[in-house]
């Protein structure tokens, strides 16, 4: 099915839980202060789009294409990224609430998470090679069988990563947050 093509358009202050959001291919569009909570975005396509100050919590994303998409100051609680189209998936996050988001089994190499809340997010079997978690809160985030090689956790907080169940070669940590690698061993660090 060929979708309508919408490019270079700005959508501002629209509540898409009330107004209809046209299923289309959005190219180089900007969404500012829009409400998408619980919206059905399956089979939509976003290429080089930016979402600013939007609420995308609990959206449905089966086969949604997110190609070079930036999210800034967005609330994305429970966002099911794992359902998105994986072809050319590229995401950038700045100051977003990504709590309870599901990234499991995705290729997120080089992804920047900047000042994000990632509490209870799922990164099971996710490839996060060279990803950066700058000033991110990772309390209760799940890292299981994840590839974290050369990932940067130097300013991340509250994470718990089991070294034996994840690939960590070349990953960066600070001396202040090393306890996140040892918490499962029930040892006292002073």
UniProtKB/TrEMBL annotation:
<dbReference type="InterPro" id="IPR001646">
    <property type="entry name" value="5peptide_repeat"/>
</dbReference>
<dbReference type="InterPro" id="IPR052949">
    <property type="entry name" value="PA_immunity-related"/>
</dbReference>
<dbReference type="Pfam" id="PF00805">
    <property type="entry name" value="Pentapeptide"/>
</dbReference>
<protein>
    <submittedName>
        <fullName>Pentapeptide repeat-containing protein</fullName>
    </submittedName>
</protein>
């Amino acid at each position: 099915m060929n979708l309508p093509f919408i490019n270079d358009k700005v959508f501002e202050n629209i509540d898409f839980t009330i107004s209809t959001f046209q299923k289309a291919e959005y190219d180089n569009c900007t969404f500012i202060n829009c409400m998408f909570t619980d919206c059905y975005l399956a089979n939509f396509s976003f290429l080089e789009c930016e979402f600013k100050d939007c609420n995308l919590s609990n959206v449905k994303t089966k086969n949604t294409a997110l190609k070079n998409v930036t999210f800034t100051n967005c609330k994305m609680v429970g966002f099911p990224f794992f359902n998105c189209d994986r072809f050319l998936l590229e995401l950038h996050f700045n100051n977003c609430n990504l709590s309870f988001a599901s990234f499991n089994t995705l290729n997120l190499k080089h992804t920047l998470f900047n000042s994000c809340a990632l509490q209870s997010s799922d990164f099971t079997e996710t490839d996060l090679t060279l990803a950066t978690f700058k000033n991110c809160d990772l309390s209760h985030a799940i890292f299981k069988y994840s590839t974290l090689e050369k990932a940067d956790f130097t300013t991340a907080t509250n994470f718990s990563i089991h070294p034996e169940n994840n690939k960590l070669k070349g990953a960066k940590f600070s001396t202040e947050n090393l306890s996140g690698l040892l918490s499962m061993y029930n040892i006292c660090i002073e």
